[in-house]
Fold each of these.
Amino acid sequence: MFGTGLLKGLGVTMKHFAETFIDDRKPMPSRYADSIQLEHGRRIIDQPITQEGLLTIQYPEEKRLLPERFRYIPMLLWDTEKGEDRCTACGICAKVCPPQCIWIVRDSDENGKPVTRPAEFFIDAAVCMSCSFCVEFCPFDAIKMNHDYELAVYDRYPQLVYDKEELTVPLEYYAAMWPEQFAAEQEALRKAEEEERAKAEAKAKAAEAKAKAGKSADKPKRTPEEIEAMKQKAAARSAAAKEKAAGGADASDKASSDTGDDAAKKARLEELKRKAAERAKQRKQSEG
Ligand code: SF4
Ligand code: SF4
């Protein structure tokens, strides 16, 4: 029938109106059940998905509780523990940013040598489209999406071009804003560090084993038994040499004794010669 759909739609609207009207008569309407009451009548409303009726939030006194994955403009993280920027000025985020709204100037040391930290970091918030590509591609978890969406200003330039100081937040701020993601990242970081440590230990052990193997290769390849046998052989050789030396001494004694015998023989011969000459003289005298 003509107009049935229209009547159904109006019926749904009337139903929501009635539910909200009844709900609003209660001392604590259901839309405020899980809300967080702030100072000066301000509230953060956590709207349940089962909520029925018309939900009007009295912004700016009332605000919706933002889900963790809500994203607006990027922020740079300052590692409070290490006392340094996480950003290394690698420039990847600037390269992947679709509307090209990131500018980075790398810092340098006193000698003019580039260092791994940004001297300047700008994001044009008026151009940023909150795509989060910069966050996805950052290899150092240095850039994350901020929840802060109340950025209204009178002039676009320079107020909406955020510099490094305006973009930088401490790690604790990010941890409070993105608790689940932060915990997951810390866990991944811990695992990566453990793996790195295990690899370093394994490498050190391998190097130690290699050094030991090198030392043992330098050593003579003889067993203690072989060394003992060699010692015994050397002792036997030296004993034999001593014996030989003693034998030589005996021979020289003998030689010397031989020399003494010859002299006696010579003396005796001389005596005999003298006696023979004396007899020959006596014979001549007796013949004469
Ligand atoms: S925020 Fe990340 S990707 Fe961008 S320059 Fe810094 S370290 Fe590189
Ligand atoms: S969120 Fe997207 S548009 Fe905004 S700075 Fe990052 S990459 Fe660029």
Amino acid sequence: MSDKDKQPLAASASTQSEAESADAALRHIVDGFLHFHHDVFPQQEELFKKLATAQSPRAMFIACADSRIVPELITQSAPGDLFVTRNVGNVVPPYGQMNGGVSTAIEYAVLALGVQHIIICGHSDCGAMRAVLNPDSLEKMPTVKAWLRHAEVAKTMVHENCNCANENESMHVLTEENVIAQLQHLRTHPSVASRMANGHLFIHGWVYNIETSEIKAYDADKGCFLPLDGSHPIPVATPKARF
Ligand SMILES: [Zn+2]
């Protein structure tokens, strides 16, 4: 098996030239599919046969829709391993405010699939976080503006509690605070709250750095983000079980 075949996701992540035409963009995607269908799929046929009628993912992964974040690639997961939901800003609306796609996916992952972990993953250079800091940029995008109200609490947190020296620092703190805010929203979902309370579900808040590939994870006990570097216990955002 060549390195290319071992990492089909990496193989498709070529750099897109600025002048790429619509035809060329589509051709690239279809060529990628044909490579997968003819060369990659046959090598993993057993796995796909097993997955054809059932799934039992290790975790639910809630990430930003940003094209540079590929949950399966950065966690080296295979098909069937992660139940992924992605949206602008890795947002989780609080329960009862909006019975949309994210809430539906959470309920399904917890109650139907029985996942034991939910990971909310933000990232560096997030366009959604930049827009939260500069709301004027959203004047012509009323839907994005309305959606990002779910990140408003993080913005207030930064403005009122952090003497950030520049926009880069504000972005860094806002991105972490947004992950913490979405973890709090996640806990308002009854299915999540109940299984966390009886010790069957664990929640995690991560921030992925696109430039370095490092991840920092929120440690709820210590109240800070710590590197996920394999040399320390894995930081978790789950409070103690009560039942
Ligand atoms: Zn983003």
